[in-house]
Specification:
4 domains, six-stranded mixed beta sheet, Metallo-beta-lactamase, Chain A, 40 strands
Length: 696
């Protein structure tokens, strides 16, 4: 808002700094934060004042003023302290197999050097939002019951600020592809080449493709949405490397964690504890709850770690907070990622002479692996970043191997052999690598291993799988399966999308990579129930009917596939998509949910929970209406797509006096509580939405 007291910004999603830099008066110095500092559906902070603070203090030499609910001031201080100055207490010696002066840096001393005399109070001043309203000069701001604000300027009401922000996220797709992206054996996709102050380009981050699976490195905010719009299936990326906890590096990380399925997060305990502490303060959820939403894989800094067949060796870089970089080898190629790092031999020597850095630490930093085949190196403004002029002073043969990121295009040297990182899926880099003798077998086992129902297939059956799988390609528009014909094959999509048609009242049913179809007629014995058409070019694995039935015979897969074949239909698709938590589920997530549904009927006037046993189920309304009754009072009606439960284990408070009565004859889908909770555990984004709404 432009007021008589200058700009006042309400809420602060990530990277709004880039927008406000373009306004006539520039970046605001006054912020009013919403009651909820986190938006669970978008997976982002609504109170990201971290970068405005940096910009106002370090560039404009101004302090930022933040108005905030008084109960949330301490949490916001935690967030900003972690981001600005790093964790207060930590011990990295346990992050090494061997501890010696030669390899373990004194991060406390290095961080203290960068911090200097700064403290949070120098950067920001907090004022409580008073329930009756508060004044900013001649501007009066009055909180409303819906968590919004009425804003008055010189006694005249000028705006009503909503309690919840509506999102209109905008981003440049860069160079895109017409067909779904097919990952290479090895490649690098730049998610953003620049820094958090540059309004022209995306903030830095990238994807390493290893054995056709993606590992995200510090993805910038909204990378998940950008990837979907760039025809990149999210299931192709199963891992993250979090290097440090500045907002331009961790906000996209948390979004990816909440996107689809559990992901592996590689980092050190020091970095991950800071990350979880920060987002626990933002979401106001226990750190223990957030830690359960992803698979944390702690790294040892003097040991190799295998990620998808590539061998990584991590180290702490030189930065203002704990930050990791790495070297990586894959087949015949080597790759180096500097991460945010002050690469300056003169500074290393200065810090050594000051006693801040040991000789071993100095020598380690001096011996940067310039001999690697591919070097991805940051650049920026010292003392926190490497000067582009230093990289441009390196020998030409080294420069030709260096791709520079974290720098605005206008600041990149004009005469150089360095390469500026190029944003966009169409700019993916494909280094030549040595072929592997067993690539096809590895790919088959990897693809089937990523499909829920095949994960527990016995080892001898997995060997059989290699003997019966066939590779097939279909061009866009080609009919793969025709409705009402006999079933002859089972299909798994390796790359591309297929459209499921010919089902009454069902539209936009599309399956993608690592999803399967064609099972129903094989196990139930009927004819095909739908048309399946290649929506794009499709690569698929197929298994002939008799081979497929022989493969699953005598395994738990047989029972599971039969259950899915019975339940998975157009009706379940529509019911699931009608639910507020499930409306954005991918087709593979829908299939996983369908696997735990059991159809039941509830006669009119009958209660849902009439015994203790029935309280251990969750119900999804398919048809009819339920009336919720709390403490004997009718409160609301539930219709198609809505969920009913007696109590979830994570709901606050004691056991509620809650039940549901059928207002009409109802058709429901029943889920065992433990299976429903397992589904939430596998899908952290849905769990976050339910947790957020039911946290009390």
């Amino acid at each position: 808002m432009n007021t008589s007291e200058g700009y006042i910004q309400f809420g602060a999603p990530p990277e709004t700094l880039k927008d406000t830099k373009l306004l006539p008066l520039g970046v605001p110095t006054t912020f009013v934060l919403p009651y909820n500092h986190f938006h669970p559906e978008q997976g982002i902070s609504m109170a990201e004042v971290e970068f405005p603070l940096y910009f106002n203090y370090y560039i404009r030499k101004k302090k930022t003023t933040v108005y905030i609910n008084p109960n949330h001031i301490d949490n916001m201080k935690i967030v900003l302290n972690e981001a600005n100055f790093g964790p207060e207490k930590f011990d990295i010696t346990n992050e090494y197999e061997k501890t010696s002066e030669a390899i373990v840096p004194n991060l406390h001393a290095e961080m203290k050097y960068f911090r200097g005399e700064n403290q949070l109070a120098n950067l920001v001043e907090f004022f409580p939002i008073e329930p009756a309203g508060f004044d900013i000069g001649k501007v009066r701001i009055v909180p409303r019951a819906d968590l919004g604000f009425d804003v008055y300027d010189n006694g005249e009401k000028i705006v009503e600020v909503p309690g919840e922000m509506k999102f209109q996220i905008q981003y440049d797709l860069g160079a895109t592809l017409n067909e779904p992206f097919e990952p290479p054996e090895f490649g690098i996709t730049c998610l953003g080449p620049s820094h958090g102050f540059d309004h022209e380009q995306n903030t830095s981050g990238f994807i390493l493709w290893i054995n056709r699976i993606g590992v995200m490195l510090d993805p910038p905010v909204n990378s998940t949405a950008w990837l979907r719009d760039s025809n990149v299936n999210p299931k192709l990326i199963d891992s993250l490397i979090l290097t440090h906890c500045h907002a331009d590096h961790d906000s996209g990380t948390f979004q990816k964690i909440l996107e689809e399925g559990r992901v592996n997060v590689y980092s050190t305990p020091t970095v991950i504890q800071s990350f979880v502490k920060k987002y626990s303060a933002l979401t106001r959820m226990p750190a223990s709850t957030l830690l359960k939403m992803f698979n944390f894989i702690p790294i040892k800094l003097d040991n190799e770690i295998n990620i998808h067949g590539a061998f990584f060796r991590f180290h702490y870089s030189l930065h203002s907070i704990p930050t990791i970089g790495f070297q990586m080898s894959y087949r015949n190629k080597t790759f180096v990622y500097s991460s945010d790092h002050l690469n300056s031999p003169e500074k290393f020597q200065e810090l050594y002479q000051m006693g801040i850095m040991s000789k071993g630490r100095r020598d380690h930093l001096l011996n940067f692996p310039w001999d690697a085949d591919n070097i991805y190196h940051e650049a920026g403004v010292p003392p926190l970043h490497t000067q582009a002029s230093y990289l441009n002073s390196l020998p030409a043969d080294i420069q030709k191997k260096v791709t520079v990121y974290h720098i605005a295009e206008k600041d990149f040297p004009t005469e150089t052999d360095l390469t500026l990182a190029k944003f966009g899926i169409g700019e993916t880099v494909y280094p030549d690598i040595r072929k592997h003798a067993h690539e096809n077998a590895y790919r088959i086992l990897d693809v089937f291993g990523r499909i829920d129902i095949f994960k527990d297939l016995p080892r001898d059956k997995m060997k059989d799988l290699l003997l019966i799988v066939n590779e097939e390609d279909f061009e866009k528009g080609e009919k793969i399966i025709e409705k009402d014909t006999p079933g002859d094959k089972f299909y798994v999509i390796v790359a591309g999308n297929v459209s499921i048609g010919g089902i009454e009242d069902v539209e936009d049913k599309v399956y993608g990579t690592f999803e399967y179809f064609g099972e129903a007629s094989l196990v139930l014995g009927g004819k095909r129930s739908a048309d399946v058409i290649a929506a794009t070019h499709v690569q698929a694995y197929s298994i002939a009917k008799e081979d497929f039935l022989r493969l699953i015979r005598g395994t738990p897969l047989a029972e599971n596939i039969m259950k899915i074949a019975i339940v998975r239909n157009g009706k379940t698709w529509n019911v699931i998509r009608a639910n507020k938590y499930f409306k954005r589920l991918s087709s593979s997530q829908v299939t996983r949910l369908e696997s735990i549904l059991m159809p039941v009927d509830l006669p009119k006037e009958q209660f849902l929970f009439t015994s203790d046993a029935e309280k251990n189920f969750v119900y999804l309304v398919a048809k009819g209406n339920l009336t919720e009754i709390d403490n004997g009072q009718k409160t609301k009606k539930l219709g198609m797509g809505e969920l009913a439960w007696y109590r979830l284990p994570f709901e606050n408070g004691g056991t509620p006096e809650r039940n549901f009565k059928a207002s009409t004859k109802c058709e429901l889908y029943m889920m065992k509580m433990d299976e429903f909770l397992a589904f939430l555990d596998e899908n952290p984004g849905i769990q976050m939405n339910i947790l957020f709404e039911n946290r009390g």
